[in-house]
Specification:
mainly alpha
């Protein structure tokens, strides 16, 4: 069964929930299977795959978020570097940061002109009057 999503369906906000499900789901699998070597790194892979999906969601938004686009790079740097801890706490903190970033992505970068820019433009247009313009 092949599922095809149109661009309008991908821009809906219901797909953001996949990022924390993948990230925290991998951590739960990793915790439950500490004795199995193959599944013990499921938390790391869940965070990396979740960050890749977050980057894809950031890419299809009208406004691009550079932080969300670079999360796969952060994940690879954090989890492949032996100087960083790969423990459960690091994975949970990374998954929580992905969760915060996906909420930020949906609130700030979902429209072409964000609410803050509209507010600033309205304030600026209200301040400028014909009397202030040079003739």
């Amino acid at each position: 069964m092949v599922i095809n999503f149109s661009q309008d369906e991908l821009n809906t906000t219901r797909f953001w929930v996949i990022v924390p499900i993948i990230s925290f789901g991998g951590i739960v699998i990793s915790i439950l299977s500490q004795t199995i070597v193959f599944l013990s790194s499921a938390g790391i892979w869940g965070c990396i795959i979740g960050s890749c999906f977050l980057a894809y969601l950031a890419y299809i938004k009208p406004k691009k978020d550079i932080v969300s686009l670079l999360t796969p790079l952060y994940a690879v740097i954090i989890f492949s570097n032996p100087d960083f801890s790969r423990e459960i706490l690091t994975q949970i903190l990374f998954a929580a940061s992905l969760f915060i970033l996906v909420i930020r992505l949906n609130l700030r970068f979902s429209t072409k002109d964000s609410r803050e820019n509209k507010k600033m433009n309205e304030e600026y247009e209200g301040e400028v009057t014909d009397e202030e313009l040079p003739s």
